[in-house]
Amino acid sequence: MKTCNFAAALLAVAPAAVAGWSWAQGKSINFTSVPGYFVQDDEATDPTGFDYAAVNFGLINRTYPTDKRLTAAKNKTQWQRFEAFVKDLNSGCHRKANVQYKVLFIGRHGEGWHNAAESFYGTPAWNCYWAELDGNGTAAYKANAYFKDRYETQKMPYFQSYYTSPLSRCTVTANLTFADIHLPAEHPFIPTVKEGFREGISIHTCDRRSNKTYISHMFPTYKFEPGFSETDQLWRATEEETDAALAQRAKAVLDDVFRTDKNTWISITAHSGIAGALLAALNHRPFSLSTGQIIPVLVKAEAVDLRPTPTVQPYEPSATCRAPPVTSNASQGCVCASTTAALPRATTGEP
Ligand SMILES: *[C@@H]1O[C@H](CO)[C@@H](O)[C@H](O)[C@H]1NC(C)=O
Ligand SMILES: *[C@@H]1O[C@H](CO)[C@@H](O)[C@H](O)[C@H]1NC(C)=O
Ligand SMILES: *[C@@H]1O[C@H](CO)[C@@H](O)[C@H](O)[C@H]1NC(C)=O
Ligand SMILES: *[C@@H]1O[C@H](CO)[C@@H](O)[C@H](O)[C@H]1NC(C)=O
Ligand SMILES: *[C@@H]1O[C@H](CO)[C@@H](O)[C@H](O)[C@H]1NC(C)=O
Ligand SMILES: *[C@@H]1O[C@H](CO)[C@@H](O)[C@H](O)[C@H]1NC(C)=O
Ligand SMILES: *[C@@H]1O[C@H](CO)[C@@H](O)[C@H](O)[C@H]1NC(C)=O
Known about the structure:
CATH class: Alpha Beta
CATH topology: Rossmann fold
Bound molecules: 2-acetamido-2-deoxy-beta-D-glucopyranose
Radius of gyration: 21 Å
Number of domains: 1
């Protein structure tokens, strides 16, 4: 049967997110990160110090079964051949309605965003996590330069959908990474702000998000997922999200993306904690991301019989000051006024 035209598939213009498209309704979704395409899922690859920009995002140099059907396959780049392969997984002759594949690029925010956030939250509170930053403001610019290079020299496919955590360090990183790239008209940079991609919710104000009005004022072109609330309904001053709740949220936000977004090539700008939970939900091996790092995953999603979602404890108490901190510094983190120190620990951290 010669009805599958792979050369045409490669050239076909990807559809923009189709309003109302839905998949796996009334089903549960089983995710697998498909091994053999990116070095990051190989146990032999050490995540410590791994740099996507040294190895073409980790895309393995290999052949694909679809190569032989590509016109002038020898002249195609690894990314072009991989794109044709993935396209075939989703639309080829062997496609199953209960299975879909996506390529997710999960990025951890970079720096270059703290000025905006500091002016928003105020210096003492900001310092409670600012002091812990690793990285020096170059990560988002590095990603920006690397994407430009990959698009130009490697014909890497453009993202069809973008998502970002609502927290400033991500909305800003997404902007710095993508906003000035010359993208074709059918692949505009219009990220959707999605609550489920925010960081594990600690008591620190760095995990409290801006209101919707403020985000849309900063980034007028960004879209919001349906139901995105004006103010932060999830952050709590004295309780933090449990690990079990974070894991469940990560699975739920991925389910939502796979249920509602027809597109294949997807960029997610998020944080270290939620990225770890996303990888776990995708059944990828642990691969911790340092600031500004980006990990691609080829995901197979299979609609399976509905499974109940277990009930988990959503929040647990956390150390905090009972009132705004007096100040903060690198050696001590948050410094509570002595009369308000509720608990001995007020850790810093900038996930
Ligand atoms: C989900 O996928 C895994 C392989 O990744 C498989 O072992 C498991 O049986 C699947 N579960 C269901 C309910 O299909
Ligand atoms: C694939 O080959 C290219 C060119 O030799 C090299 O730059 C790249 O690092 C290789 N990719 C991996 C994942 O080893
Ligand atoms: C492949 O690229 C080379 C060099 O750019 C060119 O000379 C050749 O015609 C190309 N082959 C095909 C089949 O397109
Ligand atoms: C910033 O970080 C990069 C990468 O880690 C490093 O190469 C560079 O020297 C750093 N620059 C400064 C001014 O610290
Ligand atoms: C990116 O940020 C700049 C500076 O804040 C802003 O002018 C621009 O509208 C933003 N672009 C997008 C696409 O977010
Ligand atoms: C949204 O946040 C901005 C910045 O902090 C603030 O000025 C504004 O009053 C807030 N709006 C609402 C409706 O809370
Ligand atoms: C940090 O703040 C505490 C409390 O104000 C102070 O005693 C300490 O000297 C400060 N440390 C540094 C390095 O500034």
